[in-house]
Amino acid sequence: MSTSDGASMRSLSEISEEETMRLSIDLVAATRRNLGDLTEKTLYRLGLHCSLLEELDLTDCFGVNVTGLYYLSKCTRLVCLKLGLCTNITDKGLYSIARNCSEIRELDLYRCKGIGDDGLYALSSGCNLIAVRGTGLTGLATRCHRLVKLDVKDCANIDDSGFMAIAYYSRNLQQQFLSVELVYK
Hints:
Layout: H1 17-24, E1 29-31, H2 40-49, E2 55-57, H3 66-72, E3 80-82, H4 91-100, E4 106-108, H5 117-124, E5 131-133, H6 137-143, E6 149-151, H7 160-169, E7 175-177
Parallel strand pairs: 1-2, 2-3, 3-4, 4-5, 5-6, 6-7
Helix pairs in contact: 2-3, 3-4, 4-5, 5-6, 6-7
């Protein structure tokens, strides 16, 4: 995170609340590397002070949880949210995002095993999603007709009904990433 006054590069978790407010007013995009050790406090600060935030990559951040997603849901201009490998998030956390972040177009839930149909269905109720990665396809397929990219690698909670819904409703789908595990009985 660079500053206009030439201050050294530091993470959001290392600076004071007052300095956070000054630096984050114009923050539009952030990634894990410039947020530092991610805690609920860091996510609280982002939600409170970064109202212009549009892109956020939190891939592989263990500090992201239900409470953290609640704080992030205050960033109502989010267009891209990457939560791949964030193993502490659940459907309940997605409810907050679904309720407040209606501008999201791309959502990465790669290997978020706590996410299921209920969370993704909540997202689909007001979605503008054009790219989704995760489980729970039926709700998305029936409500997100502009979906163009789907990545469901290593998502174990997908059954045939989800794929049937995708095949029927998602006419704009251009890319689909699947992994298959063969089980012999």
